[in-house]
Amino acid sequence: MKHIHAGKVRDLYELDGGDILLVASDRVSVYDVSLPTPIPDKGKLLNQLSAWWFERMADVVPNHVVSTTDVPAEFAGRAMRCKPLKMVQVECIARGYLAGLGLREYQRDGKISGVALPPGLLEGDKLPEPIFTPTTKISDTGHDEFMTFDEVMNEIGEDTAKRLRELTLEIYTKGAEHAAKQGVIIADTKLEFGFDVDGTLTLGDEVLTSDSSRFWPADEWEPGRPQHAFDKQFVRDWSRSTGWDQTPPGPEIPADIVEQTRQRYTEVYERITGKTWIRG
Known about the structure:
16 strands; Phosphoribosylaminoimidazole-succinocarboxamide synthase; SAICAR_synth; SAICAR_synthetase_CS; phosphoribosylaminoimidazolesuccinocarboxamide synthase activity
């Protein structure tokens, strides 16, 4: 097993036979900075929520999962054996509600990724319909930057761009409909796709997790203010309150914030999957 990449929150290993081992750590990253304090169980929660969604989205699009159990014992519960993919260099984002960077873009331009929206929308408002708001994976600023659909087509070709938009919105809509039945709003989500060795467009990375999505309790949703977050927005909000300038190194996370984050990740996992989480 060869370690080939250490990301902000995940590690990649190359396995015998060419498969990739994707390991979800307990690290948490905000504003593209990995914070020094881990969140216990976070990696297992995200990995197992992703696995649950991958299985349920298999009729929509192929995914990269080979096995969630045939992994080294030391990574049990937090790793997937995956097919290697040539990743598309576009972050595929679907938004059903106005929040985060999308809110800021709308307040400045009345648009997100070139998609015009009605005037007068408030923070947390539901959009008339879900929209595709892609971003770059790599930019000169070191942060993701919004792309228009024309820019995506120029980058990866019209056919692939249209298929990515179609799949992103279909996955988001199917996920949001399920979550709504469990009292959870999925405000937005980020997806990543790549091509397998046969050239098949394939869903990779993670899907509809608390790190890649905004999850809100439906019974507390109220436009015009920040929402209760079942996701890492809670850590983002805390980090801003410290006066941290969002450059490395990040601040240590206090024990009470660690525990509240763990509880929120656990609650949304249990609501969505219907399973009881047993702490590691």
